[in-house]
Structure formats: structure tokens, C-alpha cells
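Hi R.,

As promised on Friday, here is the backbone we talked about, encoded as C-alpha cells. Could you run it through your design pipeline when you get a chance and send me back a sequence?
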């Protein structure tokens, strides 16, 4: 497995990001155009409204499914990093750390982690800056 670093840490799922999402958006736009054309021609709007409703439900399901999964993942990462902090220092994470900062800190190895946590709090570092500050990315991080 290729070692993880700043340049390759982002996970894109081609079938979702480059096929399903664009297809859902295109279908929703097409359904709205179909509704507009039906209205202009004065024909029954039932099938057009049904098409818009189903398309909207599909897009919203996609958005919510992704959002809920990411929220659950964020909670798991916060718990893992809290446990890591407790194991390394005997105390819980600093409550001033934002969720985005915690998400960025998870890539840091134990040797750099505490210093980066302190620096992130003191200097209010962005997640981007935290990730760029990591010298040796965690070796045991698994990509699924």
C-alpha cells in the first residue's frame, strides 16, 4: 500500500463523485425543464411534477446519506482522538479544538501529535495548515 501523505490523503469514490452525483443533478435539472415545457404547452403537469418529485427525492437522499455517514464518521474520529489524547497525556482533547482541526490532526503520528494540538489551539490553525505541518504521516492509517 502506498504511504499516505498530504497529496494523496483525499478519498474520492469515482462512481459516487463523478457519476452518481452529476447524474442526479442532471436528472433534477431535466425534470425541472420538463415541468417548465409542460406548463408552457398547457398539458397535464401530473407526470412532470412526479418526475420532479422523484428526482428531488433521489438528490436529497444522496445528499443526506453522505451527510449522515460523514457525521457518524466525525463522531468516531473525535472519540478515537480523545482516546489517543488520553493515552498520550492522561487528559482529554482541548475543547477549543474544532472538529475540522481534530479531523486534520488524526493524520499526525503520536510523536508530532501533541505539539500540533497545542499549536492548533494557540495559533488557531486551519485544517489545511495542520495537514501541511505534519512531517511524517501516520503509517498505520488504513484507507478503505
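Update: got your reply. Pasting your designed sequence below so it's all in one thread:
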Amino acid at each position: 500500500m502506498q504511504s499516505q501523505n498530504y497529496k494523496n490523503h483525499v478519498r474520492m469514490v469515482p462512481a459516487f463523485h463523478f457519476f452518481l452525483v452529476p447524474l442526479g443533478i442532471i436528472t433534477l435539472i431535466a425534470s425541472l425543464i420538463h415541468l417548465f415545457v409542460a406548463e408552457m404547452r398547457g398539458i397535464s403537469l401530473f407526470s412532470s411534477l412526479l418526475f420532479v418529485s422523484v428526482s428531488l427525492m433521489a438528490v436529497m437522499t444522496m445528499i443526506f446519506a453522505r451527510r449522515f455517514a460523514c457525521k457518524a464518521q466525525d463522531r468516531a474520529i473525535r472519540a478515537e482522538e480523545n482516546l489517543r489524547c488520553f493515552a498520550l497525556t492522561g487528559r482529554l482533547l482541548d475543547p477549543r479544538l474544532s472538529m475540522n482541526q481534530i479531523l486534520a490532526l488524526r493524520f499526525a503520528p503520536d510523536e508530532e501529535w501533541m505539539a500540533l494540538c497545542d499549536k492548533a489551539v494557540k495559533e488557531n490553525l486551519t485544517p489545511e495548515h495542520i495537514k501541511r505541518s505534519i512531517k511524517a504521516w501516520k503509517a498505520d492509517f488504513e484507507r478503505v
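One thing I noticed while checking it: The first helix runs from residue 14 to 41.

Thanks again,
M.
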